[in-house]
Design goal:
139 residues, alpha/beta, Rossmann fold, binds flavin mononucleotide
């Protein structure tokens, strides 16, 4: 059984849509930060927060990990790397002994994305798949 954990920010909600294509239970990292319209301002603000590794305010879903074999992590690529909300989530909730599927949504720049999960997931987990979507299309 899959637990699908996602974060999505843009008005297109790409990661939300991608998350919904997986079977299993779906959990959102709900953003409690001030909402800003416009891609440019979000890129600026969250790009900066990503750079300085700033803490962000979101709801941590209550997941009973014993119920799941696979954990699917879906989020937008930010500054070429793991999304700041997903990073903070994985630091708060270091699940163990799972098969992980890492999924990214981006506009084309994702060179360091999968590598940036190294050290974030507990070593007892095994990454079984890495999937990238560019402009909504699976590569
Ligand atoms: C702060 C920030 C940084 C971003 N950095 C990148 C990036 O490095 N590479 C890229 O291809 N897209 C980048 N994007 C674009 C998003 O990753 C892309 O539009 C994604 O599909 C949005 O997913 P969402 O709809 O789930 O939020 C960035 C967007 C924001 C807000």
């Amino acid at each position: 059984m899959n637990a699908v954990i996602y974060f999505s920010l843009s008005k297109d909600l790409n990661s939300k849509r991608i998350a919904s294509t997986y079977d299993g239970d779906i959990f959102e990292l709900v953003n409690n930060e001030k909402k800003r319209k416009g891609k440019g301002i979000n890129m600026f603000v969250y790009g900066y927060k990503t750079m300085i590794n700033k803490d962000v305010d979101f709801d941590v879903p209550d997941i009973d990990f014993d119920r799941y074999d696979n954990i699917v992590l879906v989020s937008p690529v930010w500054a070429g790397k793991v999304n700041l909300f997903m990073k903070k989530y994985l630091e708060k909730v270091p699940f163990k002994n799972k098969k992980a599927i890492i999924v990214g949504s981006c506009d084309g720049g994702y060179k360091n994305y999968f590598k940036s999960y190294e050290g974030l997931l507990d070593e007892s987990n095994k990454v079984i798949e890495e999937v990238i979507y560019v402009k909504g299309e699976k590569k």
